[in-house]
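Supplementary Methods S3. Complex input for the iron/sulfur cluster-bound model.
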Amino acid sequence: MFKIIQKTIRTGIVTKAYPAELAHISEHFRGRPSNDSREVTVDYGLCVFCGLCAEASSDKAVRITQEFELATKNRRNLVLTAEYTLNADRTHRQLGTVRRGSGSVETDAKIVGQKARETIHKVLGRSLAIREVDAGSCNGCEVEIVALNNPIHDIERFGIQFAASPRHADMLLVTGPVTRNMELALLKTYRAMPEPKVVVAVGACGISGGIFGENYASLGGVDKVLPVDVYIPGCPPRPQALIHGILLAVGRLGEKLYHERGR
Ligand code: SF4
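Predicted complex, serialized as structure tokens:
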């Protein structure tokens, strides 16, 4: 009996103070399995392509490419989530999976251009007219849109031209975050266009409000006011990116005409 008491005194208090104190875990203990990875989500509809994320990424997890054919009919396609496995020091080791929103992304401008010409001539039997509305843009997007008419980009080779009136337009091209002062003008322009018609949101501002966002003066994107058929990312999108997006929208107009005549 005396020996037992002596041993107890020698051993002292063995009860752990967890959770008041951190639990000391044996290195051989097997707890929750972890895949030691990191997810990075990029929204091209918000991105102004400044490149700062790539500069800050010392392990090259993010890099800037020259890819510009990003236009899509589905806003969710502009949101990408990449999953990286990590090194012990938490730097990125390997790009695992890249997940997009649902739907497919159309990237082949040649095929799209060919189809666009066919669609315009077969379905419309005339050239396609675009009405452009600046809904609060910084004019950066307009500089690129104006370049579509120069001899280098020459959008008329596709049978596409800009119209002075919405009453003659098949396509509405909108730049800017849609300021509250421009909301009514944009709606009136849309309503003045004959059916069927397509709407294209240009640039980060047109897609999401861009650097202006949503606030007392800005609605935060064209789809807050109108149904958007095609989104063209960029800040501003370069002329080729605009052509790619416009040709996609021509395909969408063809679909609408098909449905209208099939009725
Ligand atoms: S997307 Fe960029 S370039 Fe275009 S209007 Fe907005 S801030 Fe200007």
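Residues 102-106 have pLDDT under 50 and may be disordered. The pocket of iron/sulfur cluster is lined by residues 137-138, 140-141, 175-176, 203-205, 210-211, 235-236 (CB under 6 Å).
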